[in-house]
Amino acid sequence: MNPLQGRDFLSVADLSRAELHSLLDLAAQMKDGTIAPRCEKVLGLLFDKASTRTRVSFSVAIYQLGGQVIDLNPNVTQVSRGEPLPDTARVLDRYLDVLAIRTFAQETLRGYADYAKIPVINALTDLEHPCQALADLLTIRETFGQLEGVTLTYLGDGNNVAHSLLLACAMTGVNVRVATPENYLPDRTIVAQAEALAQGKSEVVVTRDAVAAVEGSQVLYTDVWASMGQEDQADRRIPIFMPYQVSEALLSHAEDEAIVLHCLPAHRGEEITDGAIEGSQSRVWDQAENRMHAQKALLASVLGAV
Predict the structure, then answer these.
(1) Do residue 161 and residue 265 come from a single domain?
(2) Does the keyword Cytoplasm apply (predicted)?
(3) 7 given a catalytic annotation
(4) 137 and 84 share one domain
(5) Which residue segment(s) compose the domain that 97 sits in?
(6) What is the CATH number of the domain that holds 169?
(7) DSSP code of 9?
(8) Active-site residue flag, 87
C-alpha cells in the first residue's frame, strides 16, 4: 500500500525525505506517461482565496485521473452563513473522497483535518504553500537532473511560499537562501525546522544581502511582495523590496546556468522584470505546468490509486 494513502498533506514536513522523493518520482513518471493510474474519486475544492493555477491544476489533475471535482465556493454554501467548521467538515467527509482547502489560517486547515476522515490537502494558507513547493522541486530536478547540491535563492517577502521552500529544500539537500528586508523575515520556527531537517547536509541561510545570496546560486526564485490580504501595503512595500527585485542585473551574479522561478501571478516591474521572466533562463511556465503533475501524483497517492 502507498504510505501516503489516506493521509493529510498540510505541510511539506508531513512527508519523510523518502516519501517526498518518491512523490517527485511519481510526478515525473505521470508527466512522461510512463504510468497512468486511474482514480474515479471526487475532489472538493474549498477556497476562501482567489486562485487561478491552484484551482485549474487541481481540477485538471482529478479529471485526468478519471475523477470529478466539486467547487465548494464559500459564498454559495452555508459556510458563508456561519455554519460551524466541525459540522461542515463532517458532512463533506460523507460526500467527498479528498478535500483541498485554500484559506487564511493554518488552524482552519487543521480543523478540517481533525474533523474529516478523508485526506485534506493544503492548497495554500498564510503559513505554507506545500503544493507549490512540490512543483518547484520537480522543475529544479528536471533542469539539473538532481536536487542535492543545487543552491536556490529566494528573494522577497518571507511568506508562505518561502516557508514551504525552506522545508522542501532542506529535506532534499538543496541549499536554500532567503534574502529579505529586516522586518519581513520568514517565521523563526519554520527556519529552525528547516535547519533541523537539513541535518547539516545542506545550508539554510536567511540574509538581508540580495547580491551575496545570489552569488553561486543555480535558482533565483521570487514571489509578489504583498500577498493576498496585504494589498493595502503594496505601494509602501515597493521601495523597501526594490533591492530584491529579480532582474537581469541581479541574475548576472548567479551561476551561468541559473534559472528563474516565480510561483505567479507576477507583478512585472516590481518583484521581477520583464527581461527576467521572459528571458532564456526563465522556467516559470514549466513550473506552472508542473503544479498539475505534482498535484496529480499527490492525489493518486493519498487516494490509493498507485
Answers:
(1) yes
(2) yes
(3) no
(4) no
(5) 12-128+291-302
(6) 3.40.50.1370
(7) B
(8) no
